[in-house]
Amino acid sequence: MKVEIYSDIACPWCYVGKRRFERALAAFPQADQVEVVYRPFQLAPDKSETPESHRAYLNERYGPQSAAMDARLEELGRAEGLAFDFDRAIENNTLLAHRLLWHALNAYGAKEQAALKDRLLVAHFAEGADVGDRDTLAALAAEAGLDRDRAAVFLASDEGRAEVLAEMDDARAIGVNAVPTFVFEGKWAVQGGQESSTFLRVLEQVAQETGAVPAAPAADACTDGACEVPAG
Q1: How far apart, in whole angstroms, are the C-alpha atoms of residue 216 and residue 208?
Q2: Where is the DSBA-like thioredoxin domain (predicted)?
């Protein structure tokens, strides 16, 4: 079974959804037969390549309600064992980080890409790292098990840029307009950072549909807990 997860490093629900999905996968008997690949999506593709504080950036985009949004995510994060430090968080354009994830998948493999994805999310949301900075990204790549020098050379080039942009165009073409979006076997999609129990039911249903396991109850269709591109 192949699961493609469309997400953005700047999306807090992608952080929560990743943890919940991984918990579901750990409980899925056929987990060793599941390939997980992360696909790029940008909530703010026009964001400048100038770092700015998360609090100021979110307040500009969403106004006074942004504080309540952060507070809710901090509470949800604690329940999932995830740390959010929005006072330290830095917002920047995430294209470089998506290119690095593309590099991890194509040069190393899906497991290495997943490890890098986790490292980027933790660095962004809990450590105040600038994931739009090349030196920072190269260091994070090394911490995730990739070769630092190779990552630095890659980031200094334009390699993967056209491919990543094409993948994001493809995502919108198939109807992905909010993240995280989990696409199973290229046919079934679940949007949002759903509860682990929902993800587990989806895994069971897809396995049933593909003939991997006996019939299981169908999963509920849900769209909660997603980060959307604001209407322009």
Answers
A1: 7
A2: 3-202
pLDDT of 215 reads 38
CA angle 86, 88, 92 (to 5 degrees): 85
Helix, strand or coil for residue 28? coil
Spell out the residues 6+ positions from residue 127 whose beta carbon is closer than 8 angstroms to its own: 85, 88
- Looking at domain 2-228, which CATH architecture does it have? 3-Layer(aba) Sandwich (3.40)
Beta strands, E only, 90-202: 90-91, 178-179, 181-184, 188-191
160 in the Ramachandran plot: left (φ > 0), alpha (ψ -120 to 50) or beta? left
- Inter-CA distances, 203 with 21, 42, 52, 132, Å: 10, 26, 39, 34
pTM over 0.70: yes
**Counting Cβ atoms within 10 Å, is residue 88 exposed (0-12), middle (13-18) or buried (19+)?**
middle
Q: With 70 as the cut, is the pLDDT of residue 212 above it?
A: no
